[in-house]
Amino acid sequence: MQTYPDTLSLIGHTPLVRLKGPSEASGGEIYGKCEFANPGASVKDRAALFIVEDAEARGVLEPGGTIVEGTAGNTGIGIALVANAKGYKTIIVMPDTQSKEKMDTLRALGAELVLVPAAPFSSPCHFVHTSRRIAEETPGAVWANQFDNIANRRAHIVGTAEEIWEQMEGRIDGFTCAVGTGGTLAGVGMGLKAHDERVSIALSDPHGAALYDYYAHGELKSEGSSVAEGIGQGRITANLEGAPIDTQFRISDQEGWDWVKRLLDEEGLCLGLSSGINVAGAVRLARELGPGSRVATILCDTGFRYLSSLHDPEWRESKGLR
């Protein structure tokens, strides 16, 4: 049995599990990084810790200070937990379209929650811009800026990628995940390619996002829409700049939900839609790479965070998910 010196040391070091159904469907070996095993139950704990400790190292976050962030929820939860462990206050700005479970969790963690209507990034009312203004107006506050703060992707270069490489004993042919800030895909891609340039890095993009067309055709162009929370991007963030993306897939909500349902029914894993989209992308990548290929992806968070949405039959029916 291994012990940890403090609670923040629990972030990272997550298990990697072979997914039976996706492996059989693809003809390869599909592995999921169990990021729901982090203290805040999502992959965003990693970025939260690195962003806070980077602010401390730069001297911009002082004892008793406040951390402000705009988030779809999971990064806010991670920041609130890290802030509590370090003695900081937290203000989280979130679109009012996100799940009730995320809102309730943030309030339970003691964060000040500011809900704003969903708006395009070009609008000054967008949650990111609102969080920046609040940080500027709050004495002793720092803005986490997860989308353009590359401490985010550094968490995955030195953490997630190294863990995957070690867990797969250096035998990995591909990695894929969706993009919210870009930190996970870019960071893991950079970290894995530092070990082996031949590892194929793929974007799994939901409908309504613009990155599929950007990497396929050089144009930021979106088509359709998605109900997935926390993923889908319409611009090249600082975290995405220089990301070593070799190929790209566009994944529908239905395809993602099909895998969420199969993993729940057949393997006892309760996940969110972003994880389903990631697994769908991993299946496509393994098929593209050929029989026996070994592909890893991210199981972003727990499905228990979406009991009132994705895992509610009436909600799914209202969104056209079968």
Automatic annotation (TrEMBL):
Signal peptide (from-to): none
Keywords from the named record: Amino-acid biosynthesis, Pyridoxal phosphate, Transferase, Transit peptide
GO biological process, one term: cysteine biosynthetic process from serine
KW Amino-acid biosynthesis (keyword) present: yes
Pfam families the UniProt entry points to: PALP
GO molecular function: transferase activity, transferring alkyl or aryl (other than methyl) groups
SUPFAM superfamilies according to UniProt: Tryptophan synthase beta subunit-like PLP-dependent enzymes (SSF53686)
Cofactor: pyridoxal 5'-phosphate
Record has Transferase as a keyword: yes
Matches recorded under CDD domains: CBS_like
Domain Tryptophan synthase beta chain-like PALP positions: 10-301
Protein name: Cysteine synthase A
Organism from which the protein derives: Sphingomonas oligophenolica
